[in-house]
């Protein structure tokens, strides 16, 4: 029943309308000049000849100081231009929108996703403000010693009483690829070790995949499943589920190639029973 309601919620016409409104709003807002344009302007001013293959990172090196300042100011101002356009559009479509938004939140979803800037939770799901409580970190990890994510889960479950917890990864995750890089990554080492531990747990399956991209994609999926297990290990989730039959934990993966979410079909109840021999915190 919960899975059915989740599907209906995400596919409702209200959500599709919201996506359309967001798209229109962003089109109305002024667009900024690209780094490439600034770079070419600076290049012509300084007399330097830049290769068309110069990357975004290298573009800064060819920009005059005045162009860098102008670019930074413009990208700052663009956010406020978009914000004003968005606020005006919301008020136009619903004069009571901000009054209702100010009244409080009661989201059905807790979204635990990757910090990657290309995966805005509300936009890819069609959820509106107030419908998702969102936490993001590198590689969407749920680590029991991370007070940030543990606090988010506790608050979302005990106080907001969310009905669904979604752990959402994405194919081509830089964090997953970095974890498989045989080098010292400094401060990232202890964080990415959690992904390396996932590889260790599923080493036989992963090593049997000869294609490197397919192996990385499978590791992304396996890591999401392990993070779902870590969510279910928490006292807040176990106790709420025992009392209320929610929240349900889901594992999804986003694909950049088609923009679609893949449901990994995590069996919440089976996973819960599987871990409670050791991690039972319902008492």
TrEMBL record:
The record's annotation in Gene3D superfamilies points to:
Carbonic anhydrase (3.40.1050.10)
What are its cofactors? Zn(2+)
Write down the SMART domains for this protein, in alphabetical order.
Pro_CA
The note on the cofactor says:
Binds 1 zinc ion per subunit.
Where are stretches of biased composition, namely Low complexity? 39-54
**GO cellular component, as recorded:** cytoplasm
Its BP terms in the Gene Ontology are: carbon utilization; cellular response to carbon dioxide; cellular response to oxidative stress
EC number annotated for this UniProt entry: 4.2.1.1
InterPro entries the UniProt entry points to:
Carbonic_anhydrase (IPR001765), Carbonic_anhydrase_CS (IPR015892), Carbonic_anhydrase_sf (IPR036874)
The reaction(s) this protein catalyses: hydrogencarbonate + H(+) = CO2 + H2O
Region annotated Disordered, chain positions = 30-60
SUPFAM superfamilies named among the record's database cross-references: beta-carbonic anhydrase, cab
- Supply one GO molecular-function term: zinc ion binding
Q: Does the keyword Lipoprotein apply?
A: no
- Keyword terms, alphabetized: Lyase, Metal-binding, Zinc
Residues annotated to bind Zn(2+): 114, 116, 170, 173
What enzyme class is recorded for this protein? Answer: lyase
Any Pfam family from its record, for instance, is Pro_CA
This chain's function reads: Reversible hydration of carbon dioxide.
Q: Which family, according to the similarity comment?
A: Belongs to the beta-class carbonic anhydrase family.
Q: What is this protein called?
A: Carbonic anhydrase
Query: From what organism does this protein derive?
Result: Anthostomella pinea
């Amino acid at each position: 029943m919960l899975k059915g309601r989740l599907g209906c919620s995400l596919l409702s016409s209200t959500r599709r309308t919201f996506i359309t409104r967001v798209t229109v709003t962003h089109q109305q807002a002024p667009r900024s000049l690209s780094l490439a344009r600034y770079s070419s302007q600076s290049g012509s001013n300084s007399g330097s000849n830049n290769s068309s293959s110069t990357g975004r990172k290298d573009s800064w090196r060819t920009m005059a100081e005045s162009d860098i300042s102008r670019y930074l100011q413009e990208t700052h101002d663009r956010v406020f231009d978009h914000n004003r356009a968005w606020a005006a559009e919301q008020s136009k479509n619903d004069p009571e929108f901000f009054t209702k938004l100010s009244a409080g939140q009661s989201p059905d979803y807790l979204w635990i996703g990757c910090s990657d800037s290309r995966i805005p939770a509300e936009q890819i799901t069609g959820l509106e403000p107030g419908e998702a409580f969102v936490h993001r970190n590198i590689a969407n990890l749920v680590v029991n010693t991370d007070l940030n994510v543990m606090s988010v889960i506790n608050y979302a479950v005990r106080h907001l009483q969310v009905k669904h917890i979604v752990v959402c990864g994405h194919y081509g995750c830089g964090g997953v690829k970095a974890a498989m890089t045989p080098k010292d990554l400094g401060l990232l080492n202890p964080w990415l070790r959690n992904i390396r531990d996932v590889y260790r747990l599923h080493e036989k399956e992963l090593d049997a995949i000869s294609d490197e991209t397919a192996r990385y994609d499978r590791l992304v999926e396996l890591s999401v499943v392990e993070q779902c297990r870590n969510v279910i290990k928490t006292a807040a989730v176990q106790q709420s589920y025992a009392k209320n039959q929610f929240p349900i934990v889901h594992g999804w993966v986003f694909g950049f190639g088609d923009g679609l979410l893949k449901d990994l079909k995590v069996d919440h109840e089976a996973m819960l029973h599987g871990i409670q021999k050791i991690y039972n915190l319902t008492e």
